[in-house]
Design a protein that fits this description.
Helix content is about 75%, strand content about 0%. With about 190 residues, the protein is mostly helical.
Length: about 190
């Protein structure tokens, strides 16, 4: 009878450990997929912004054709943004993009007729909307990364989850947080 109780306790412990491992593994898979989805959302918004920028440049070019350096800087920042494949690359590209957008809006401020252009105003509104969406996507991504990294680092998960192929993900952090705290704005 005692042997049966000991075997029953061992079987119960094995079942509990198995359920824990199964639950932890599935939770990590869900978090991993959520982080991948969030990164995809960021890239979609960055692509949307990159698609808006040529239209904005063409609109501003019509009024300020001699501002060639500004347009080249924006084109370079756009290319960096499109080619960024990791959060670290995207963060560097984000800094360059913010500086370039500030430059183009500074040029726009010097041309009252441009500021009154319906096309420019519409593009500016779409760009601000896209910047808001990028910021929201970044928050969602970083929240998912936080949850995943926490689950990987907590005990007892830290003892075995790396051997299952789960690794910590990097946050989408920008070196100059003040530069992207708010979307670019133009004061008319």
């Amino acid at each position: 009878m005692e042997l049966l109780i000991v075997v029953g306790i061992i079987v119960l412990l094995v079942v509990i450990i198995g359920i824990y491992l199964w639950s932890t593994y599935n939770g990590l898979v869900r978090l991993n997929v959520r982080v991948d989805e969030a990164w995809s959302d960021i890239t979609v918004q960055l692509k949307r912004r990159a698609d808006l920028i040529p239209n904005l440049i063409e609109t501003v070019k019509g009024y300020a054709a001699h501002e060639r350096g500004v347009f080249e800087a924006v084109a370079q920042a756009r290319a960096e943004s499109i080619s960024a494949s990791t959060p670290a690359d995207a963060a560097v590209a984000e800094n360059h993009m913010q500086a370039a957008l500030k430059s183009i809006f500074a040029v726009a401020e010097a041309y009252p007729q441009l500021q009154a252009s319906q096309n420019f105003l519409q593009l500016q509104g779409e760009l601000v909307d896209t910047e808001d969406k990028i910021q929201a996507s970044r928050r969602f991504y970083n929240g998912g990364v936080r949850e995943l990294n926490t689950k990987i680092k907590t005990f007892p998960n830290t003892l075995y989850v790396r051997s299952l192929g789960f690794t910590e993900r990097e946050f989408f952090e920008v070196a100059d947080a003040a530069a992207i705290a708010e979307p670019p704005r133009v004061q008319f």
